[in-house]
Amino acid sequence: MKKNVKKIVLAYSGGLDTSAILRWLIDNYNAEVIAFTADLGQGEELEPLHEKARKTGASKIYIEDAKEEFVRDFVFPALKANLVYEGTYLLGTSIARPLIAKKQIEVARRENADAVAHGATGKGNDQVRFELTYFAFEPQITVIAPWREWTFKSRTDLITYSRDCGIPITVTEEKPYSSDRNLFHISYEGGILEDPWNPPPADMFLLTVAPERAPDKSTFIEVEFEKGVPIAVDGKRLGPVELLTSLNEIAGKNGIGRVDMVENRFVGMKSRGVYETPGGTILHVAHRALESITLDREIMHLRDSLVPRYAELVYYGFWFAPETELMRKIVDETQQSVSGVVRLKLYKGNCTVAGRKSPRSLYHPDFATFERETVYNQADAEGFIRLNALRLRIRAMLGK
Predict the structure, then answer these.
(1) Taking the CB of residue 59, how many other CB atoms lie within 10 A of it?
(2) What are the φ/ψ torsions at residue 221 (nearest 5 degrees)?
(3) What are the DSSP E strand ranges found in 330-378?
């Protein structure tokens, strides 16, 4: 059923979907449409948006710089928790959508808009991520999701519609995969990538060189953390955006951060996604290495048991849900001792730990050494083992 609205704020990227949606909203709702774009590090992609949105029919366009907030309040908390979905995906799109939706609601309030709209399809995860966030901040907001309303069946239909309306587009039938970029990663899906047997096109990647084309000499870097948050690279203290930008460049040159996976979407189907997360991969490896010497064993194991559930909540779109907020508080508490420096070796797509040190380290050579020492009586291990073996011995005796 068509909603009775007069002013709509559209989450606008300037790509095929949202360009077609902008025009479609004007034609089908006879409403004023305001385009909103959150600058999360898309770079040169943002330059033509003002002119393109106006030409497509937007009454105005907001482009808000949210890079600092994105890295500080979304990327770093995810890295502090070691969030990885299904063992592979560092959640670059999943953590961006809640921030975009939050900022979009702020614009809707400022403009006294009746509704918000997005370009997510009815098959994907993003529709859930956008709308859960909308309702978390504005419970009564009207949401328009054109992919769930219009008669278009494919992106090929949108290409035809856009050409008929005179909307400039960059996607073609010959190269129809879509991409989404922010400061943390780029994701690619659709088109040729829908067949999981097909390798990604070699010219598709934007942030990383192919590992075989990376330098033949290893690159060593040091990353410093304070309470789980990265604060410096090679001894130089950097702000969140500058730090991630720097690591993206270093990792990209060394071919680090490519992922090709088939993941389980929230709605129930499997989907093939290809990702580039160069700097984030370095930070993930470094953070885990530092935790290995600074976290108590039981705290680490308990936290690790929560990570798959936490990652799933973020992937599904529950960033602003109470259970996710609780998870963040738990993780923050575990990070109080996670301060120190990690040295990493980067070589042709590989990121390996070359050293770690911390003033809060729980690792002591006096305890771990195989040489002569006086702090640990190895004979004590016999009783420890026999106590742990008691139930196994009883089971075996009963079996006989």
Answers:
(1) 15
(2) -135, 160
(3) 340-347, 350-357
Residue 210 included in any domain: yes
From the list 59, 178, 218, 292, the catalytic residue is 178
Q: Is 120 exposed, middle or buried (0-12, 13-18, 19+ CB in 10 A)?
A: buried
At residue 75, φ and ψ (nearest 5 deg) are: -65, -55
Name the active-site residue from 19, 126, 129, 155: 126
**Separation CA 315–CA 71 (nearest Å):** 17
Q: Are 144 and 115 within 8 A, CB to CB?
A: yes
Active site (annotated) includes residue 17: yes
From 13, 17, 162, 271, active-site residue: 17
Q: Is residue 368 in some structural domain?
A: no
Shared domain check, 166 and 32: yes
User: Are residues 186 and 172 both part of a single domain?
Assistant: no
Instruction: Dig out the tokens for 23 from the structure.
Output: 């025009």
Contact between 332 and 315 under an 8 Å Cβ cutoff? The reply is no
CATH of the domain at 268: 3.90.1260.10
163 lies in the same domain as 193: no
What is 179-206 written as a DSSP string? EEE-SS-EEEESGGGGSTTSPPPTT--S
Count of structural domains, the chain = 3
- Asked if 191 and 171 sit in the same domain, the reply is no
| Token reading at 58 | 């937007």
d(CA 39, CA 94): 16
d(CA 368, CA 359): 18
172 shares its domain with 190: no
Q: Is 178 a catalytic residue?
A: yes
pLDDT along the chain (400 residues), means of 10: 85 92 95 98 91 95 98 98 97 98 98 97 95 98 96 86 84 67 95 93 95 98 98 98 98 98 96 97 98 98 97 98 98 98 98 98 76 74 94 92
pLDDT score, position 364: 83
From the list 97, 129, 258, 303, the catalytic residue is: 97
CA distance 10 to 22: 7
Residue 97 annotated as catalytic:
yes
What pLDDT score does 260 carry? 98
User: Which residues span the domain enclosing 192?
Assistant: 181-357
Alpha carbon distances (Å) from 74 to 40, 53, 185, 290: 11, 28, 13, 20
